[in-house]
Amino acid sequence: VTVEYIVRHNIYKNDFALEAVCDGEFLAAAFVWTGSEKNDADEWFCKKLGALNCSKEELYWAEMSKTYIAKMDAGTRALMEKDGVQMTLFASMKSGAGTPLLNELCNRLKQAGRSALYLWTDQDCSWQYYPRHGFETLREGVFEPFSESAENPYRTFIYKRELRKFKRTDHAKSLHDVRKDLQRKKHDDYVARSQK
Fold first, then answer.
1. What pTM does this model have?
2. Confidence at residue 171, expressed as pLDDT on a 0 to 100 scale
3. CA nearest to 141, candidates 124, 119, 116, 120
């Protein structure tokens, strides 16, 4: 329930939603909240929990996860500029597919006059990716309920990428290039298997 809630909560339908697929295979996706979109994740969560036979501990952690997401969203949105956008979900399943998708998203946001892209993440995700890809750290924090101990805190991060300065670099691969590389690799793998 919690994982599905996280996904439902972070998917917003708007002109900036991007998904990369090659030959039916999911490569990467990015979704943003521009300030006005709503979704039905909270209603779904309440109905789903009510229909399940959960223990008190399972209910506690499900509610705690929902509280955590709300707190991180609120913290991120409090730091956003008026024309900023929050990236709510960014997932890459194929090495090399995420960066071109992120660059395409930044390019579209910049062309639409948006000033910055914000996001929050935590230690369970690839948080190191963002500083290497043009994001500055706005805030580091700790979410105590998820921390194992004072020596092992559950770390959280809020990032910002300035879009006014964003330039697509010539050496960066486009999504089209990534798709072509994957198709070429699949073809080469097929040829190699058929020659055995």
1. 0.82
2. 44
3. 120
By the 8 A CB rule, do 18 and 29 touch? Answer: yes
Give the tokens for residue 84: 């900023």
Q: How far is CA 195 from the centre of its chain?
A: 41
In sequence order, what DSSP letters do the residues of the chain get, joined into one string?
A: -HHHHHHHHH---STT-EEEEETTEEEEEEEEE-SS---SHHHHHHHHHHHS---HHHHHHHHHHHHHHHHHHHHHHHH--TT-EEEEEEEE-STTTHHHHHHHHHHHHHHTT--EEEEEEETTS-GGGTGGGTPEEEEEEE-GGG-S-SSS--EEEEEEEESTT----TTSPPHHHHHHHHHHHHHHHHHHHHT-
Tens of pLDDT, residue by residue over 72-117, are: 999 999 999 999 999 999 988 888 888 888 988 999 999 999 999 9
